[in-house]
Each structure stands twice: as C-alpha cells, then as structure tokens.
Amino acid sequence: MDRARSFSRRDTLKAGAAIAAAGALASPVAAQAPAKLKLRLLETSDLHVNVVPYDYFRDAPDDTVGLAKTANLIKAAQAEARNSLLFDNGDFLQGSSLGDFVAYKKGLKAGETHPMIAAMNALPYQCGTLGNHEFNYGLDFLEHGLARAEFPIVCANVDRVGGGTLIEPWRIFEQSFEDEAGTKHILNIAVIGFVPPQIMQWDKGNLDRKVTAIDIVDAAQKYLPEIALAHPDLTIALCHSGIAGGERKGGEENAALHLAKLDGIDVVLTGHQHLVFPGGKAFDGIPGVDNKKGSLHGKPACQPGFWGSHVGIVDLELEKRDGRWRIADFKVDPKPIYERTPNRKIVPKAEAEAAVLATVKADHEATLSYMREPVGTTSAPINSYFALVADDPSVQIVAEAQIAYAKPLMAQTPYKDLPVLSAAAPFKSGGRAGPAFFTDIPAGPIAIKNVADIYLYPNTVQVVKVSGAQIREWLERSAGIFNQIDVARTEEQPLINPGFPAFNFDVIDGVSYQIDVTQASRYDGDGKLVAPGAHRIVALAYQGKPIDEKAEFIVVTNNYRASGGGNFPGTKTTVVLEAPDLNRDVIVRYIIEKKTINPAADNNWSLKPLPATVNVTFPTSPAAVSKKPETLKAQPVGDAGEGFVKYRLGS
C-alpha cells in the first residue's frame, strides 16, 4: 500500500472549487459493473498511557492491558488485509502511573517526546483525536506532547478564545488502495475528531479563558460542508464520546449516536465509555443501535474497550458507483488481548511487541523506582473490597487527609468558623475494570504506588460551601449507585447498579447517615431529579444531632466535583478555595507527617437494615474472602460471573 498523501483543511478549501469544476467537465462513462475494494479500519481508544502490560499499583505484570500487546493484534490484523488504516480515538496522555511520573516527576519540556507518543509513533497510525483526559495536565503539556507525534491529530469542537480551533478540525488523506484484482485506486479519506464539551467543566482550571468547547453535532454540521468540497470517498468520525440513547438536547457527553445521524458521516469510531461495541450489554435495546452488527443508525461503528484491552476492527466492502466509492457492506469485530476462563483465569491472546516496549523502557523503569519509594507506614491493611456496601478504610484515609489539609487553610478565611467535612469516593471497586480492580494494601510500609492506588486521578483540591440541605441532596445523588430493593420479594435482587460509576459514590465524612435502598433514587443517571418524593438518606446528623438544613458547611472535594462533574446538586454553588495541590499529594504529605497511619473506618454511614427474608447480593473480588469488615453482615454465595464472587447481605 502506498504511503498516504494528506491534506489539511486549508489545502482542501483552496482546491475545492477546482475539484468541483473538474468533476462537472468530466465526460460520462458507459455503465459497467462497479469496482469493489475491501478496506480494514483499526481503532485504539482510551489507552491512558498503558504501554507495558504491567500494573504499577500491584507492581506486577498484567496481561489485560498495554499497547505493546494491542500492537501484536494490530500487526496480525494488518497482515490479513490488503488495505488497512489505523486510528486512535483519544485519552492517551493521562491515566497510568507512567503518565503521572512524566507529568509530575520527570516533566515534559518542548522538544521532548512523551513515552506514550513514542510508543504510538512505533505503529502506523494514520490519524488520532483528543480525549477529555488530554487536558488534565494543562495546554502547555498537551502542546509539547502532540508536537512529537508523527501522525496528525484532529479535533473539531475545541476553539481558542480569540478565534480558531485548538488544533486542525479535520484532515483529508489521498490514499492508494488495491482492489481484489490488484488494481490500484486513489481514494480520498476524510477524518474529523470530537471530544466531550464537558472538558470545560472537568478541567476548568486548565481551560477557562483559554479555549471553548462546543456541541459535537453542532461542530460536525459546521465542518461537513467544508469536507464535502474535497469530495471524500469516505468520512470517518473519531468521536471520543460514547453511545447513549434518548432525544438530542445539545451538549451531550455521549453523542456518537446523534453524530451518526448526520449525512456526510460514513463511519463512527467511538470511545470514552471504556466499553466494547458491538456486544456490550449496556447497548442493548437502544433505538438506532444494532449491538450485533455494530452500527449506529445503520452506519458502521466500533468501541474498543480501554487500556489497550481490544483493537477495534471495522471491515468495509466498498463499491464505486457514479464516480464515488460507497460502503456496500461491513463487519465490526473488536478483538481482545485476553480472555477470562470460567474459573477466572486470564488467558493472554497476544504477545507484547518488543519494538513498542523498547520505546518506553527507560521511563517504565524510572516509574517503577518512583512508585516504590516509601512514604510511611500503615498499622492496618487498606482495601476497597466492600467499599460500596460499608464505610471503608480506603475512603477514610482520603477524608482524613483532606480535612487535615483544608482546616489550616480555612482558618485564614471568613469561613474559619464553619464545620469542615470531606467528600471522597472508592475509585477502585471492580466494575468494568474487572475483579483485580480493587485497592489492597497490607499493613506495613506504604509507598507512593499505594497512595496512587487509593487515589487514581490527578485531581486538585477544591473546597465548597454548602448548606445542610445541599449535603443531603449530594448524598441522595451519591446513593443512586444502589438499585431499589423490594422487601416483598424473596428472589435474588442485585444491590449495585453497574451503570453508576464508583467514582460518583461520594461518602461525606464528618456527618453520619444511613441509606434506605427500599426507596427509589431521587436522581437518575444524569443527575436529574426524577423522584421528588423519595428519600434514601435517613438519620442524617452532625455531631449526633439531626442536621440543620439551613446551616452552612465546608466540604473538601476535588476540582472534578466542584466544577459540576457527576452533576451533583449544589456542588458548584460556592467554591471558596481552589488549592494548587493534587488530592493525591495531600494524602502523601499526610502520611509523611503522621509517619504511621491507622486507617480504620469510623462507620459514619451504613445501609439501613433489611428484613432477613430479602435476598440482596453484590459482587466483589475472590481476594475479599478473608478481608470482610467485622461489622458487615454478608456471606459469599457463589460465582457472580466475569471473575467476581457474589456476596449476600445478612448473616
């Protein structure tokens, strides 16, 4: 296959009128059987700086992650196809300890190559787009990272304040392909990229007054007429946005389905949700989604998991009719780098590519040394196996560190007399990431890798002022992680809603409360009030007395929550402190100052007891068997599937 010749938006606009005129003057040809050509599109997404198949938190190899393994499947998929193109769908610069090491320890200066970019440069990427996490370390870091990429990166819905897009919105590639008879044809492949507009909330501190983000569909409608001037044979949308149903209202975080409706979009490569499409259960029953064929409104679409778990494969059969190539048929088949056997064993389906590993060898080894640096001692083990059903030490240590950090700062403000509370969530609690995705730190020395295991994200500390009523609603939104339990039923009822992210299950320390799961959730998955008469939060108290809903409180949280992340009611009303420090660094400092910590849960919250006749279950890791809190009444009752074990609440 010949190397592609690519054209930027500016090149295409200059040539557009001439191309159109030439087409109008061309003489008609006799009708004949259409030429046919097969083209394989390959996709990675949500790599999150996972290059080496290694879990830096467990400090052990991990066959479920890593671009080095995905590269092996990419290589095999390309060898099977006469024509192929490889794309990345964003979220590549942040997300693993390797990424944090580069951002916070080593640094990234102009002219230096980020290890993730170095690894991606070792593969034949045609084009990529930005994900929301590309903005986590600021625009300068992003600019330095992208500068060394040996493939173009496009994004159409982020504009600079003052004019122009942050990077080029789209690009067209003039590419030579061979049909099944070996005849070469020149095709014009247009690629346009998108990112969730919510980046303006999630990374407000990095982006405010510097860029703006617009609706994904609006951005597509803005640029598709320009792309049409180039007469593309195929227009591919790199949509770092997930697949969700419902009526379009504008500004959707997961807008891929709405994007696919547009004329001019031929293929949608999606991501962001960390799911697999087609085949993921989350996509069943959504109008316009074919979860078997792999299509959105009839157009081929794919989502290839996360952390390098899959390579997305979209096989197109193209026919040339009326002078233009069109999709006659397609097949979508995401390929995994591993499979899990019924007895929960991980079986690798790909070997790591040595050439990719070599690009990050030095940075990988430096990350290991960095992560192994001890910072103190824990007198008790810290794990998150039961963090969704009982107060938990992995959340408790975050709460204690955040309060210790914020109290001296607030003492210097007009809010010095207000009670200081802390909101934190159990980031690692299984879910889509599998049964190994839990915090598990033994008693003894505690290292940076353990702190990063407790607090995954590079959030910064922010403090908000809220009322007692807002605290109640904050907790009501958090309690949406639970399914409603019917006490009249005796058959098994799952307690946890798998579609609710654990990072939105905030526990507020400094108050006490129970959660009544027999009530409906007041808020839906988008944070909208849907059951005004329902109240899951009961016995909410401060210092042993019912909370005064008119009283004012200080809550220490993070920039994601304080800027509206998760759509929690009241969290972005009054931000009284935007601290410069990472939540994770606050925990490290707390441990260093204490030297020895005793992260025992204070049991400030619990589930309201249910009748013994109710069969309520939840999944956790097989490793949890000997680590259940003494105060939690729950028993293992069998296999929960996907490598998890099932527990039943009650003695």
Automatic annotation (TrEMBL):
The keyword Metal-binding applies. Residues 40-274 form the Calcineurin-like phosphoesterase domain. GO terms for molecular function: 2',3'-cyclic-nucleotide 2'-phosphodiesterase activity; 3'-nucleotidase activity; metal ion binding; nucleotide binding. CDD domains: MPP_CpdB_N. Keywords: Hydrolase, Metal-binding, Multifunctional enzyme, Nucleotide-binding, Signal. Its cofactor is a divalent metal cation. NCBIfam families: PRK09420.1. Belongs to the 5'-nucleotidase family. This is 2',3'-cyclic-nucleotide 2'-phosphodiesterase / 3'-nucleotidase. It comes from Bosea lupini.
